[in-house]
């Protein structure tokens, strides 16, 4: 009787031990997971505090519009834009691998130009500025509706055109010897550009430059 009882008891305690061990493992696992998550968070916070990563800054420094005519649903344009890209980071360098600029008038795209391709990509060190430029020249069939033609004629009378520029970047960051994966920020610039008429040099461009652009990651 006593034997049977102790046997039963043994089984019961054995069962108890298994269950508590299982609970204990789960509990250890949870504690470990929480610790890892906290550690990861702390590492990220420390990384941000030390590296202080910041986006680059982008400005239009010069805009020269020498032709902007819309006749027979065709836009003839000739425009040179100069930009400055600035890296405000204290620790990070930036590789500019690719920059494509698209220009819009009245919501319609009329030109796109590769300002930088991967072959002439360059590295910008911390706290440095570099120029970039785009030459937009040619013609494009644009179907402006009556309202848009009205806006065009208004702009034409004043001699100042609202031109919207979108730039598509492919960049990488450099920290010490390590290089990040690719980022694809977009940049938007709104420009009021005056036409430089060949016979009136004073009427060059009125817009106060540089114009700061929006950089969106
Ligand atoms: C526009 O089209 C009309 C008719 O096709 C033509 O007579 C005229 O010369 C064209 N204008 C320009 C600036 O191309
Ligand atoms: C503006 O860009 C054009 C075209 O690339 C270049 O020839 C010119 O030197 C640039 N001007 C300035 C002031 O950077
Ligand atoms: C140039 O254009 C401006 C604005 O239309 C005008 O006030 C000025 O008299 C012109 N200057 C010359 C030399 O034609």
Automatic annotation (TrEMBL):
Keywords: Membrane, Transmembrane, Transmembrane helix. It comes from the Eukaryota. The chain crosses the membrane at residues 21-51. GO terms for biological process: defense response to other organism. It comes from Trifolium subterraneum (Subterranean clover). It is found in: Membrane. This is Uncharacterized protein. The keyword Transmembrane applies. One of its GO terms (cellular component) is plasma membrane.
